[in-house]
Amino acid sequence: MSGLYDPSFEHDACGLGTVVHLDGTASHALVDQALTVLERLDHRGATGSDPETGDGAGILLQMPHRFLARAAAEEGIDLPPAGDYGIGMVFLPTDPVKRLRATEIAVRTVAEEGHRAVGWRQVPVDEDAIGPLARSSQPVIRQLIVERRHGSLEEFERKLYVIRRRIEKLVLSSGDIDGSEFAIASLSSKTIVYKGLLRATQVRAFYPDLRDADVESALALVHSRFSTNTLGTWDLAHPFNLIAHNGEINTVRGNGNWLSAREPQLRSDLFGGDLQKLFPITEERWSDSAKLDAALELLLRAGRPLEHALAMLIPPAWSDATLDMDDDVRAFYEYHTTLVEPWDGPAAVIATDGDKVVATLDRNGLRPGRWLRTKDGICVLASEIGVLDIPEADIVETGRLEPGRMLMFDTSSGRVVHDREIKRVLSRQRPYRQWLDQYKLHLDDLRPQQGTPIDDDALPVQQRIFGYTREDLALLIAPMAMNGAEPVGSMGDDTPLAALTSRNRLLPSYFKQQFAQVTNPPVDSERERLVMSLRVGVGAIGNLLDETPEHCRRVTTLTPVLTNGELEKLRALRRDGFRAATVSTLYPVAEGGPGLAAALDQLCREAAQLVWGGTTILILSDRGADATIAPIPPLLATAAVHSHLVRQGARTMCGLVVESGEPRETMHMALLIGYGASAVNPYLALESLRALHEAGDLGDIELGEARKRYVQAIGKGLLKICSKMGISTIQSYRGSQIFEAVGLGQQLVARYFPGTISRVGGLELSDLADEIRERYELDVLPADPDALLEAGGEYQYRIDGERHAWRPDTIVHLQRAVRDDAYDSYRQFADAVDAGADRAIALRDLLEIVPAGPPVPLDEIEPSSEIVRRFATGAMSMGSISREAHETLAIAMNRIGGKSNTGEGGEDMTRSTPDANGDLRRSAIKQVASGRFGVTTPYLVDADQLQIKMAQGAKPGEGGQLPGHKVDDYIARLRHSTPGVGLISPPPHHDIYSIEDLAQLIHDLKCVNPAADVSVKLVAEAGVGTVAAGVAKAKAEHIVISGHDGGTGASPLSSLKYAGLPWEMGLAEAHEVLVMNDLRGQVTLQVDGGLRTGRDVLVGAILGAEEFGFSTAPLIAAGCIMMRVCHLNTCPVGIATQDPVLRERFRGTPEHIVRYFLFVAEHLRELMAEIGVRSVDELIGRRDLLRQRTDRPTWLESLDLSPVLAHPRQPGDPAPVRARPQDHALHTKIDPEIIAEAEPALARGEAVVIERRIQNINRTFGAMLAGEIARRVGPDGLPDDTITLRVHGHGGQSFGAFAMPGTTIELTGPVNDYLGKGLSGGRIVVKAADDAGYAVSASTYVGNVALYGATSGAAFLRGRAGERFCVRNSGATAVVEGVGDHGCEYMTGGVALILGPTGRNFAAGMSGGVAFVLDADGAFERRVNHASVSLEPLEPADDRALVEGLLREHAARTGSPIAEELLTAWPQSASRFLKVMPDDYARVLAERAQADAEAAIAGD
Amino acid sequence: MTDPRGFLQIQRRVQPYRPVEERVGDYRAVAPQIDDEIAREQARRCMGCGVPFCHNGCPLGNLIPEWNDLVERDHFREAIDRLHATNNFPEFTGRVCPAPCEEACVLALDQDPVTIKQVEMSIIERAFEEGWVEPRPAEHSTGRRVAVVGSGPAGLACAQQLAREGHAVTVFERDDHLGGLLRYGIPDFKMEKTLIDRRVLQLEAEGIEFATGVDVGEDVSIEELRAGVDAIILATGAQRHRDLWIPGRELEGVHFAMPYLIQQNRRVAGLPVEGPKITAQGKRVAILGGGDTSADCLGNVIREGAIEVHEIAHGPTPPGEREPLKTWPEWPVVMRTYSAHQEGGTREWQFVTDRLEGEDGHVRRLVGHRVEFPGYAESGVRNPVPVEDGEVVLDVDLVLLAIGFTGTEDDAVFAQSGAVVGDRGTIDVDQWYATATPGVWACGDAVRGADLVVTAIADGRQCAAAVHAALVSR
């Protein structure tokens, strides 16, 4: 039986580095240094269940000719002179027959391409150096020596590329050899790659070659990999031919597809006829990094310099007008958008052509890269600083890779070339601006046209044809037009999946958005708007390998959503190089499936003919549908035409525009774009706005304005959907197909949505046609002009709308049950919920339970009191729900031995003291979410479980927001914020952009509280199993898999509906992959998302869960009536509100909740008794105890849940539950020694000073001590200056994290990312070495994301810090000498004093605290995000005193020359500062002052 | 819902009835025309619930949150469309419905519910005023013919639904005027009868034929009817009275409530009254029963000028306050005060009538005793125990029995139709309202027993849908 896992779901990330000798002198010392760099990055890689097998590591070198000549000679091979040969590093099959075939193909191919295979060198390896798992898949490794017979060196390199591609393709298509057995790691005359399924520390040992003193190079790239799965393969290790990559290309599917779509148009004089031999340029099965490497190689070998090729593929943000960028450079990027869409995602890439190393970073700066140059001309760039022990005195220049910027170490010129110079040179190669001016068209510049209106009588019929509901108009379209933003709702989606409902659903509802979790971060499309772009170009795309002025012939529009008039502009376009044509996408509805199929064929044929005939703008239109002629679902039409044109090689010759009546909400548009459309004209939605406007349903907004806002709302929503996946530009999103279908059949998907994941079968084309016909019969044909549109009822229960699980009868039965302690009423509730297949809501409703044996008496079943210990309540924050509700849940869970969850909002420490009656109001699970609200050291040490929320079922990939009206004094105190000021949780954790970052955070938390289990909460999506495996490898002890139907206090409606999968699929996949990788025994698996009954628990256990989370159901037990107004603070039953009047209405009691859980347990016991199972452990993973119901109604027949039920645990197998502890290796850290030395302070409060040398590998320095202080001394910590840690060297990640009051941690030397994370009252000082060979103040000295989530304490930092300094700071005071992009983002409290330049987007989302910035160049204002802050001069006396005091302390503690200089000129220098004041904060302070003043007057 | 905090800022406000002194002097409606502004203000209290329990509280599934929202925003035109989408006759329910929707309103958990009924009435009255209640005759004829027997709310709703589907509908009514219980059961002070005539105009314009004064089964046999139509729908009501078998029941001056109400209604309408006159004028009256019908009697008796009136119920005295946590969203047993109760008379609970005594064959005394219901408040178990020395003797001249109905009347129509009257005294139908006889359907009180007007309308609509489906699939 095949399950849900697919190897294409794998992700990886890692650490990388490069060492370059600028003068080009090759040495073995450099190789040795590079290997040391690699070893110092070992903690960024990972191992699986076999601790000795790494996920991959490797090194790329220049050709070590001296060594190879000797080594070849030892094998009797006469190596040609340097430069006259190339070496292929080849992984060959262990099977001799296969190997022979592969080598023969290789040799023959070399000959066919006109060169000579001289021979094979056996590469010696030390098998003992690697783990058993790696050994079991270890290939035979040989070097193929190819002699250059003719041509220049450059031509030879190009030919070697062709040879390599040909050999790969020939061998892999020769029969039974697959990609895990055969691969060419590199084939070049200039570079060579040694890599494998190794740990970073094993590379040197495994390849004796690398230890040979004759192996010399002037440059090296190294890479240590962390892959989510342990079933890694040798060829997936980095470096590839040109690059090593840290991060993830989110748009890779689309990028790969577009590349293959472009192939027919590719022409290159350099390649000539060889070009065809490369196709396909990328293979479907490759990793994102491998594909990026291939795309880069194509561009490089076709004649562009390496840096040019990289700049094309990974461009910075350029379109935002506020960005500080030369116009030439802007033109360069704008021009290249006409050639290629960005390869978008977090990416630090280092690449080399053998002469120079180019490093670049994604637009958002989501990966770290620190570099330096020594006085000897050695350059080092790596994920961390301190990977080589280079004395500060020897360093003459240092910095960090900045967002969207490049850096080049060029051995031919002997220089470090900086971004500005690289871009200037690139942008002046051609007159890009002139070309654009000449050929580019902007939609706004075209002659205005009138749209075609739909008259009032026809409108309702058109709305019926496209399945409009009253809810669409009232809840989606009208609010978007009024507010210019997507409407927000709350609580989870409790309606049936589209595939399960008997109602007629539109095709888009079968698709679910994919989203970023763990392996890459979502982006905040609002606060980081400047990296986002909705801009699209419509028209033909030119030859990628060429650059001509005519490439610019596209129509640019600033949003892909076109008004009716704008569409007509395109349609009317008649100019050179532009020709628009419209094809109709209608079909005769009576002809059903065959008619629809024929119409699609006809449509594709017609589209292809038009494009071959010169159409460059192809408009797919369903205008004119009537009672007999129906629209082909526009998504189907678009995907069909797009994939047909791709197959025909004609796709890039035209732009696709969809003119359709169906799309009305964001997801509809996102799907059309995701399946290939460049632009969408939702004509009926826009016409419906006219009707709404006429009916007065849009308030007093003008129609034009309403339409504008609607388009704007869709645009915002599109960016949000992109950003959930970490994608920044709609251009890259187009065609990226980042969706999973649930309920669509294999044939339909294969034919029209190729490559889309659809794992449980479902509707085929004929079924779709039947549904359309049914809609016509029910809704369109009756044509009663007065009849109302369908209700909808998707977002709110409506009696004539969609079915809901929570509806009047189920709510009342449950509430009666818990109030009257009536189990029979609970059973009425449960029976109504578990109502069978024809009333199915969730996938589990299609399953029936198979007895394991004869029934057993109820008294032999595991008692309820044991079962309820497996139950937890969900993460509902103190803030989203009322204090009464929050504490009631906690008391109830503590009474039954289950666990409640703080949610993201901190917790009142007084709740940890038991009440007089013994009740404990403390939550056992303390959540750590992206906003880090209230995440202090005392909070962390007071937990049984620490839960890292990566995603939330209701809105995975998004952040949260607590509206200001819910932030009262109490909430504000817990969250360290200001009452009345709204709070933002960012979409990503800013310390988790990648899997190795998660491992780091887990390590951090484990240091603070070694006794707590660390849990990671994930949301079901395709690939969640692989992510779960990665999380287990990152050493989490507990994993939660949430379904898409989880609740929320506020979420955009489209997220509630369209993101995430049913937990049945996610849980089954996670359990399957964990078992497959032998990782299941290291973690506890918990499931949540719409669990309601004992049967739900039974199914969850059978699919692999041992613990169960509930949220909505216990709230219902406590009185919730699904009002769904949590976001409005008007909850009428006092649960989701902070309004004191409403909170008084809360009537829930712990007894209600206890009874509910006991009922669920009792229900489970009854079911277990029926099927003859005595304990929950016996159930776990026993998927043979479920089968698909046979009594399914017809509309469910095509669904096939067998993948969910695959790989059952065999009876008699031990329970697949957590059994082995994770090894966090805390005892190997230096921190325990420090705690021992600090004993006098801990025990007696005596002052101690402790000195140490540290390296970057000493991560999370100080956090164990912080935890110890919080535990032993208490939440207030120690008196100031009790413990002083004085350390020298390089600070590792999370330096000084969570430091407590009384601790001063003083580092002399630079430091890596996450300094002072969660700082809780301690003081961190970073000083520069006295003899530093560079200007520290002007250099990056502190890594990215410093002081993330700090709540109190202080930091005095020399030099500049990286990106996102003080992100989510809510109380710490920090002084630093410059910061990167996004400084003080989402800050809610504290003080930041910045004595140097800042990057862009300063203070985005900042709502509290203040920042003082030295505006040295007078340009600070341009770098501020003004959305929520204002700039003021530093004038008020108390502000001046504050700044002066901080300067004095900074100078005293760090010896900062800048501080000295400013103080010398004080107070004149005060005028050089600007104060950044959040508007909300200022407003609240003013209100408070006013109130105080009034109170004072009243007091008089 | 444009104002999420409306329910916190606005108190429930019901437009008061006309003053008692004024209204007892006539038979006109006690409730005045609803002020649109009050309706709009009150509609703001609607929370537009995520799960509107009112939907399910209302047998019609009225789209209450939607029209509340529309009224609040002064969109009465759209509101009437929403209202008519589920309810053929909101002017009836808006007046006589006890409004289970309001008991189910989520606000009723902690506050007074939204004045749903009043909003409903404001919508429909505004619609009539503005001329928005227009005939909607079917565009096409199906060629099918349907006979509806009975013109109460179930029959009329069923007829209208079927006519709008294009069937040719004839409604048979044995009385001289249309409306069934609506017309002769309900007093004008609750609902003036011109409202029925106003609505019938629309029904006629939609092509429905009415045959009044035709008693199917007597004047025309079911056989004859079947020959001419494709479907017969029995909507004949459930007017078999529950009787009280106590000594003295046979005395003169002891009547069922319904004949009294019919006479009263006919008198008020200026129509001739058949049979012996039943009147309360100058009499001492006892009304047995504690429900809607007894209150209807009470209002009439007071207006007729009775000397004294007792409304007597044997059940436990209902609690004065709701306990929402126990009953919500269902209909709670609670002391309900109708307009008539404000007008006079005394209300007795826990009073068992033992016998009636008379003089000259005419009732003169009612003898009963008081009871207690120990433990009722806690457990809900009704276990009456006589109160010591609790005998009560009342002087009475007129006794009206308003203690309910037990099913359909014995009627030729059932015998002829072959419809089976089951144990509950009502016609047995399947889930599609079909009786045992092909081609014959039944709905309303005839099927359910005596029930609310709103339930009758709902039943009529659902039956019409079933009949329509059967007719078009044939």
Secondary structure layout:
The complex is a heterodimer of chains A (1500) and B (474).
Chain A lengths: L11 E10 L6 H13 L16 E6 L2 H10 L10 E8 L3 H17 L3 E7 L9 H5 L3 E8 L5 H20 L10 E6 L2 E6 L6 H4 L12 E9 L15 E5 L4 H11 L12 H4 L9 H14 L4 H8 L13 H11 L9 E6 L3 E6 L8 E5 L3 E5 L12 E6 L5 E5 L4 E4 H9 L4 H8 L1 E2 L15 H8 L4 H14 L4 E2 L21 E3 L22 E3 L16 E3 L6 H8 L2 E2 L2 E7 L1 E3 L3 H21 L4 E5 L7 E3 L2 H15 L6 E6 L5 H9 L4 E4 H12 L8 H22 L5 H4 L5 E6 L1 H7 L4 E7 L1 H16 L27 H13 L2 H11 L13 E3 L14 H4 L3 E5 L7 H14 L2 E3 L23 E4 L8 H5 L3 E5 L10 E3 L6 H7 L7 E3 L9 H14 L4 E7 L4 H10 L4 E5 L8 E2 H6 L4 H14 L7 E5 L5 H10 L3 E4 L1 H6 L22 H4 L6 H22 ...
Parallel strand pairs in A: 17-21, 23-25, 25-27, 27-28, 29-30, 32-33, 32-42, 34-35, 35-38, 38-39, 39-41, 41-42, 44-45, 45-46, 46-47, 47-49, 48-50, 49-51, 51-52, 52-53
Antiparallel strand pairs in A: 1-8, 1-13, 2-7, 2-8, 3-5, 3-6, 4-5, 9-10, 10-11, 11-15, 12-13, 12-14, 15-16, 18-40, 19-29, 20-21, 22-23, 24-26, 31-43, 36-37, 53-55, 54-55
Chain B lengths: L5 H4 L10 H4 L12 H8 L9 H5 L6 H9 L3 H11 L3 H7 L3 H5 L11 H15 L14 E5 L3 H12 L3 E6 L7 H4 L9 H12 L3 E4 L9 H7 L2 E4 L5 E2 L12 E3 H13 L14 E5 L3 H13 L3 E5 L11 H4 L18 E3 L2 E9 L2 E11 L3 H4 L5 E11 L2 E4 L3 E3 L4 H6 L22 E3 L2 H4 L4 H21 L1
Parallel strand pairs in B: 1-2, 1-4, 2-3, 4-15, 6-13, 7-8, 7-13, 8-9
Antiparallel strand pairs in B: 5-14, 10-11, 11-12
Helix pairs in contact in B: 3-5, 3-9, 5-6, 5-9, 6-9, 7-9, 10-20, 14-15
Task: Name its key features.
A: 1500 residues; alpha/beta; eight-stranded parallel β-sheet; 46 helices; globular; B: 474 residues; five-stranded parallel β-sheet; 15 strands; 35% helix
